[in-house]
């Protein structure tokens, strides 16, 4: 209980200081409105429903990017794990992958996929998929050989072995990959909406920024923040529950 | 139909060679042994002599390079035959399953009715002294308890041949003696043939009806020693004079082999 209290203090204290600084005009409203005003603005934005389509569109694209990157990441990770030559070829590239500025390819994606949602989803997938592949490889590496032997003694076929032994054992690693994929998908999709899109939360924030509309921009930023934190905390809670079974002594 | 021949397992001219970047390694054999039905057979040998490879070959986990293995009169192929259970030295519990689910893991994937699964589970829990831990997870258990779970998981499959690959290797001496008693109890209760791979001479001498001594690599059978113990026995047998004589005989056979195994290999 004490840790929850300290966590609350760690969040509320800086917010309170910020609130005081904004209300006393130490920080000008044009730069940052008071946190309480941002919260009221968010409630108004949700109530009016003016951005519901943008919110839904962004969440749908993020969701699609997550599903694709997790599915492709696990499948590719499993293949790379099995084919040694492929692994020797690709593993050094994974380490360097996140040094590549994916957004630099955005013009190319537009040329290839047009101006729809596809380039944004693709950037989300490109950012998320490698973390899923790397986590899958780590998970499959972690499975002790003796469990494979045990599966054979129990006369499990290859599919049943993967389903009932390999995947459950590697689950904590896969889950780490999913958590990273979720974070990267949010960054990829919303970042892409910022750069070149006519809809979505990223686009609406940029539009409000261009028009100095702080009453919209900050509430939408807060909304993204709350969604990302809520999703991450839910996944973290699930992850802890999964690990606690295996590690409690 | 299961053969009722007194010879349960037979190995004829079995060898195993491994190919690696460093060349071909002759790991095992040729081996010629027979395991009698319902006997407790132990194999001892110096480190790296191929004891575990021998077990893997019998379990069809590794194909032999030459020779033939038969189980109940039938040649062993590429898949582990029905009726063979294996307990490994390493912790082979599934960490995401509780004790009860670990024990019934293989059974639930067989065409066995639910009441029968439950009956066998309760029997195995009781036999291994795990009743109070049915809902516990492996991480909450000691090394000895986890090994009991693995033995229980093998027992519920009702194997006719139980292969044990240094199952008590990671346990302390007292626990090993107690586990040895339990193993003897299980062996008597099930009537299964048991093959125990171990590096502990006293363990082999205490548990087995016959002990095969293997040479340094490539592992061959140097001698098979009959202990002559009654079927009803337990760890107190270590205090009888014959036990010392058998252990001494095993050590005499193994000493030179162990020295040879310790010598560094030419690079």
Task: Tell me what you see in this structure.
The complex is a heterodimer of chains A (249) and B (267). Chain A has 249 residues and is mainly α. Chain A has one domain: MetI-like fold. Chain A is 82% helix and 0% strand. Chain A has ten helices and no strands. In chain A, helix 2 crosses helix 10 and helix 5 packs across helix 6. The longest helix of chain A is centred in the C-terminal third of the chain and has 38 residues. Chain A starts with a helix and ends with a helix. With 267 residues, chain B is an alpha/beta fold. Chain B folds into two domains: 181 residues, Rossmann fold; 66 residues, no CATH class. Chain B is 33% helix and 25% strand. Chain B has seven helices and ten strands. In chain B, strand 1 and strand 2 form a beta hairpin. In chain B, helix 3 packs across helix 4 and helix 6 packs antiparallel against helix 7. The model of chain B has no long low-confidence stretch (mean pLDDT 87).
């Amino acid at each position: 209980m004490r840790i929850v209290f300290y966590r609350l203090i760690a969040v509320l204290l800086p917010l309170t200081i910020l609130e005081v600084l904004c209300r006393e005009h130490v920080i000008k409203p044009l730069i940052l409105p008071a946190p309480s005003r941002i919260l009221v603005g968010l409630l108004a934005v949700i109530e009016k429903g003016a951005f519901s389509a943008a919110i839904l569109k962004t969440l749908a694209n993020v969701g699609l990017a997550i599903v694709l990157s997790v599915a492709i990441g696990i499948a590719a990770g499993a293949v790379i794990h099995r084919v040694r030559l492929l692994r020797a070829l690709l593993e050094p590239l994974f380490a360097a992958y996140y040094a590549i500025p994916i957004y630099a390819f955005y013009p190319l994606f537009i040329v290839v996929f047009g101006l729809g949602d596809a380039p944004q989803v693709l950037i989300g997938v490109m950012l998320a998929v490698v973390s899923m592949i790397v986590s899958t490889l780590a998970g499959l590496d972690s499975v002790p050989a003796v469990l494979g032997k045990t599966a054979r003694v129990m006369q499990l076929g290859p599919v049943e072995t993967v389903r009932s032994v390999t995947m459950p054992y590697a689950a904590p690693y896969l889950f780490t990959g999913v958590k990273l994929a979720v974070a990267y998908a949010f960054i990829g999709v919303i970042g892409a909406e910022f750069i070149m899109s006519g809809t979505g939360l990223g686009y609406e924030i940029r539009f409000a920024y261009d028009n100095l509309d702080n009453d919209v921009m900050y509430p939408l930023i807060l909304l993204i923040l709350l969604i990302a934190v809520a999703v991450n905390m839910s996944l973290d809670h699930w992850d802890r529950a999964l690990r606690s079974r295996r590690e409690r002594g | 139909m299961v053969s009722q021949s007194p010879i349960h397992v037979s190995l004829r001219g079995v060898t195993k060679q491994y190919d690696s970047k460093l060349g071909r390694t002759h790991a095992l054999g040729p081996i010629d042994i027979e395991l009698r039905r319902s006997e407790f057979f132990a194999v001892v040998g110096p480190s790296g002599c191929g004891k575990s490879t021998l077990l893997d070959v019998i379990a069809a986990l590794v194909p032999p390079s030459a020779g033939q293995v038969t189980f109940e009169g039938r040649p062993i192929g590429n898949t582990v035959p029905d009726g063979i259970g294996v307990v490994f030295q390493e912790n082979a519990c599934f960490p995401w399953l509780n004790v009860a689910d670990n024990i019934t893991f293989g059974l639930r994937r067989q065409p066995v009715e639910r009441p029968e699964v439950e009956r066998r589970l309760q029997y195995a829990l009781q036999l291994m002294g795990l009743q109070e831990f049915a809902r516990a997870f492996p991480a909450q258990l000691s090394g000895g308890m986890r090994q009991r779970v693995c033995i229980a998981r093998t027992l519920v499959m009702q194997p006719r041949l139980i292969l044990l690959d240094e199952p008590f290797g990671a346990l302390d001496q007292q626990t090993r003696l107690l586990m040895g008693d339990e193993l003897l109890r299980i062996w008597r209760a099930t009537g299964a043939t048991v093959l125990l791979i171990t590096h502990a001479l006293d363990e082999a001498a205490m548990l087995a009806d016959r002990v095969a001594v293997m040479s340094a690599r490539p592992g061959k059978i140097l001698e098979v020693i009959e202990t002559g113990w009654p079927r009803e026995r337990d760890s107190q047998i270590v205090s009888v004079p014959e036990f010392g004589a058998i252990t001494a005989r095993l050590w005499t056979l193994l000493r030179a082999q162990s020295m040879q195994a310790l010598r560094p290999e030419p690079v």
